[in-house]
Amino acid sequence: MSDNITKDQALILVDQAQRYQMQGEFADAINLYKRSIELFPTAEAWTFLGWTYSMMRRYGEAIAACQQAIEVDPAFGNPYNDIGAYLIELNQWEEAIPWLVKATKAPRYEAPQFPLMNLGRVYEHLGQYRTALRYYDLALAIAPFYRPAATARYRLWGRLN
């Protein structure tokens, strides 16, 4: 079987898995992501597998899946941000910072406002409000209508003034 056909089949499985994941059918989603990875491993499949695990609060497995995604494609930004987000969920705020910074520097990332927002959350949690505000502003510079950053910026701005 040619690599293109195999990759296409793997991507179809990812698409099907995402539908199951969004319906809360996590076991089916996990099985489909794993089948996709067996056919043709992609950073996207590993990252979405990690996201599914995170939705089940299985953060160790989620982080491990994202690390696999990074091995497949180190330029893909999503798994770096996701690891940072999972570490935040585990209250490992400072450990999240290097992962989130890597996400902001990833060459292939369609939503760079997410790690900037998460960095803002980390620095706000750590009491470094001016740094947090700077990250919220950077997120809004990229995505002016990104409501979580706008809300956080407004809340924090009120606290500082």
Descriptive terms for the model:
161 residues; 79% helix; 0% strand; elongated
Describe the structure.
The chain has 161 residues and is mostly helical. It is built from 9 helices and no strands. Helix 2 runs antiparallel to helix 3 (43-55). The N and C termini lie far apart (63 Å).
List the helices and strands and how they pair.
Layout: H1 3-22, H2 26-39, H3 43-55, H4 59-72, H5 78-89, H6 93-105, H7 113-125, H8 129-142, H9 147-160
Helical fraction: over 70%
| Structure annotation, total helices | 9
The topology string of helices and strands comes to: HHHHHHHHH
**What Rg do the Cα atoms give?**
17 Å
Main sheet makeup: none
- Which residues form runs of ≥5 with pLDDT under 50? none
Beta fraction = under 5%
Topology, number of strands: 0
Mean pLDDT: 95
Shape: elongated
Structural class: mainly alpha
Through-space gap between termini: 63 Å
Care to give the gist of this entry?
The chain has 161 residues and is mainly alpha-helical.
